[in-house]
Write a sequence for this structure.
């Protein structure tokens, strides 16, 4: 489905970095979900560049909901969110057209779109597109929260600095909601220092993020092929910079034995739970009622100011590129809220498929259903 | 789409481990692809358990193509492959029903299917279902090969033993096609030894597999949300036991700087290529013409003969489980051909979406198209 | 989705008229639906040719359910139904290959499948494929019936003979279930006479069928673009021979005024109903709780024994064709059960999308859902 | 897919009659299609109410393309068209909330959206939403035209006045492009007179429209279930007021014999054609190279000023309704351009599925494809 994701709850993204506006359409949401524009704005502010460790591009993200909300609640018809682009300096990019930035999508976009691509600021491939995910995701997260489902994401490692993994999920989620730099331990300063060092050296950093979901009911997901892992991974790999996704203990499971890797079942207050959670809350593609846990690898921002060898695909000649313009020395801080938001949208879809479109909303009428 | 994957080339899987037959329907294939039953049988034999390091269950995999092939070629209408189940010993499982095997799908299937699941041998969650992927994939691989696209998978690590990564792709693919135990270096015996050790200890092993695709044209895939990474990951996470997927340098990118991680572009014989391939052949979700490279983490087989703590979800009591029956001490050898096959099917879909359904087949008539 | 239809409940059809077997995979069904093979066989017998007014091809329709049913109930995983082809006389067709039968799919199949089509007996375009719809539909109808939803189809007109429209739905459905020739009034003999007359003259007849659905809850369907009308019409137009579909008063609405066409609302036993039902139970694409009503036009069977002018698309020459082989002088009798069955499958899909996959099944466990 | 239609070329519609703006996202278009805003505006003007025979609501349809176009051409990424709502008089509707307008979607929307529907002016069910179809369709029609594919729609009957059917397609299309009231014969005045009579009597009219497509290559469409008829019908039935769709001779085929109904094949200038076109250019769901022809029944506008019996679904009481506000006494004139536009979008999708996404666009680079 190209620029859309989902089966029952469907997100469609359009827009380019330097176009007039970004657009996110979220279809299939239940009616009756409260839409709080202050909350959406707060979520967007967590994605917005905001300091020396981010790009110098400043955006207001003055979103407008142009459909799908009436009297403060979702109507059940598609929610359309517009985010106008401002502070656009396209001339930064025009001069470089043809010079493929290494590990960017310049060259692949040129081939795929046959020379008609909007190349300004990465066009439709820009991380800027993720603002629509965050705005739409805010509504999804509100709906999930009303069902007792919470999601949080933190930076597990960056620049050689490790954060601790999730511990007490409720406390950790509360903690993260109040932090601009999403880490659990006292590692913000150390990470920021490494990011600034990289920036000063004309370089950039990546890292690993970790996401947890609590309150997800068991029995959601499909064996072949809409496994929860597959649905989430398909979504996550659309986020520029994510090159690896693992669930639960992930790649470290490869070195374990079965007796170490298996999650023994036990009863806790009469509920079936597992003693450990190396499966990340998913067995056979289906939620098992334990927290869903995954990590994603974020590559270093490919835009660096150091000179790089490349090819000018217009002239067909090798060339040296020195990227100017405004870039993030590490995108990982800003990716966290994008991952949380996209996870929320994917889970709304999985829940609506299983329990119906009414599951996440509310009713003012019993309608025609007995 | 539940038990189907794909948009233009679509695979649908049905069947249970101990049911009458497995079924794979592959729809959307171009007409005119030669269908070689000997090749399909050979591919199936590479997935089949075959020695002390595999399950003792022996299957003939006597597949039958019941539609979609006429006079030796695909017709363009859906290919249906049936694989009858034989050598079924259901009583192994009946006695254990209710005892959720740790890290298996017994419990999640019970919740999702509300007590009506076919619990024999893992039912629809059984690795046995992957035989249909291999049989259907054989046709997809034939079509890709005719376009110069080749795919290979090997065990990169298992039980602490490392294989070397792909080097000369063509030679490595040739080498793998002639090996029952898919490794590149002289590590088969060491790996087999570790697997047998684990088996003797009532335990199991996982590992990491690596897949490469050569010949993929640039410009295939979508930015949001059908990125090539997302399409492949969604497929791969359906394979039981895969808990992590990474492209190119994957998780190790997280610790690099941009200047280390970026793949410089260069010209090779007038073609745009990259000097390194840490992106795994994909930028912005779209193929860049370099080999597609990914690794997947395979957890240890959850069925182990050691006693394990669990819950009987029928009685609601904690219990000790000792899995009997026939199981693989390490499924990783057999997963390799499944991953190759599924990758082939996904790439056929991506190619057909971009270049049309005729791209991968042949014509005996120019039809109505000028 | 090519040979599949549906979003949450998905039917995939494969097979050719003279291939080894037909296959229908019905995915997304709730678990816990009783599967009664006797009922399936009875439904198939209503589609089967059975007298002088049908083709002389005799089929046993000895179907086999090879997955998705366990201990008599659907498991929730895909149901696979195989129907082996028997009584195949392919040589009837080989001699005619290249001679495009007028108003058949011979020529379009040749162009689309580029000369690789299975041309025997219409191949994948054969009405024989609808046997899979009927078999799978029997399970869907059982599930709907348990929710109080019933469906019936009768021949409204054929060969100039009119049946009366539906009156008392319950009685009419009961009546139709016991009739091999589905008409409401005493018109069977008159219709059969006309069909036999046409046959004797080497010709064929079409007609109009009418379908009703009762018990459908209000609020199901989408405004844009999965309207109930659109979902049903998309399904119906796949049935060979259907060239028109109308809901409620349909084409006759075009000649009415609004004051005649509108269905006034009223209360009946406290329920919102309409006084008339010219809308066919659907407003704005969504069910309104009244019976769903539609008519479909069935063209005369294109296979007639009279000589016809045509083209040999292999030689590129004009030619005269005289169709031999075994054909129905009027397919309309057999189409009725196909339409009923396909309608049931489409409605299961629409209901599952709205109310969740559990809506149509049963539970032996409350699973993880509070 | 709810408010989206298409597989490779996908239209998503959002917005409500009295919301801030309508939005149409057209994804999957080839890059390199020229986008002419003057042409889009002209197409919108053909849908816009413009005289005594239409609603008194006046809209500027001041659309803005906010993504997907760069330097005058489609980029290949999603095209987003915004149409702000103006001239909104919501108070017309507030007073009537609860009073279900007969044969409107008020009641079904209330049930489906559980009391949270935007009820102003029909909300998301308003014919106003079709402006997005026309704007997006203009781009699709441009792309088709470049491939020699043309589409036209006229009013075949309205108020008892008959237009002649299509004759010389090229001339008829030229003629229609210059007419505000789309009829082929000299019947505009007679039809307008009937419409005004109905309006004066507080009533409304419906009618039948006829659409033709020329230049469509043979071999496009699927047998089961994305038949061209099914794809088009699914789209058409989303248009409010359309309650019947027939292809070629449609319902009149039901009364013919096979010898009358069949379209004999013949050679014309070496091309396979049919002597007649009662199949409407489609055999077995697949285009046969002849003009695609269909008719659709449009019911009379349900909004009439005569008093009507209804139910207040908020109070649960029967009531008398007299619709005020601004309404079309006959929507059929304005539906013609909507049908043409939507047909164009559906055919772009079908063509892209068969021939690839590049088929309808242009290239400035040969990219990576040999």
């Amino acid at each position: 489905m190209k620029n859309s994701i989902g089966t029952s709850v469907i997100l469609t993204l359009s827009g380019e970095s330097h176009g007039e506006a970004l657009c996110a359409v979220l279809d299939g949401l239940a009616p009756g979900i409260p839409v709080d524009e202050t909350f959406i704005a707060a979520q967007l502010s967590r994605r917005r560049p905001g300091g020396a460790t981010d790009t110098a591009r400043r955006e207001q993200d003055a979103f407008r909901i142009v459909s799908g909300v009436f009297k403060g609640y979702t109507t059940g018809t598609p929610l359309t969110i517009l985010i106008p682009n401002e502070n656009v300096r396209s001339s930064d990019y025009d001069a470089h057209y043809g010079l493929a930035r290494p590990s960017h999508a310049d060259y692949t976009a040129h081939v795929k779109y046959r020379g008609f691509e909007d190349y300004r600021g990465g066009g439709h491939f820009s991380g800027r597109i993720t603002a629509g995910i965050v705005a739409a995701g805010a509504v999804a997260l509100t709906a999930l929260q009303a069902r007792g489902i919470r999601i949080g994401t933190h930076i597990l490692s960056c620049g050689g600095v490790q954060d601790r993994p999730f511990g007490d999920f409720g406390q950790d989620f509360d903690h993260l909601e109040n932090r601009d730099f999403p880490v659990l331990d006292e590692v913000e300063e150390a990470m920021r220092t490494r990011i600034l060092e990289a920036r000063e050296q004309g370089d950039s950093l990546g890292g690993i993020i970790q996401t947890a979901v609590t309150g997800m009911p068991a029995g959601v997901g499909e064996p072949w092929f809409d496994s929860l892992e597959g649905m989430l991974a398909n979504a996550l790999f659309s986020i520029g910079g994510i090159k690896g996704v693992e669930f639960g203990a992930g790649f470290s499971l490869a070195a374990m034995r079965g007796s170490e890797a298996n999650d023994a079942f036990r009863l806790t207050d009469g509920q079936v739970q597992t003693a450990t959670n190396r499966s990340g809350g998913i067995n056979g593609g289906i939620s098992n009622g334990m927290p869903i846990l995954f990590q994603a690898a974020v590559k270093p921002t490919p835009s660096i100011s150091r000179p790089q060898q490349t090819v000018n695909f217009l002239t067909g000649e090798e060339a040296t590129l020195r990227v100017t313009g405004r870039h993030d020395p590490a995108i990982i801080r800003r990716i966290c809220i994008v991952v949380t938001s996209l996870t929320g949208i994917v889970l709304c879809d999985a829940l609506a498929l299983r329990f119906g479109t009414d599951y996440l909303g509310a009713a003012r009428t019993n309608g025609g259903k007995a």
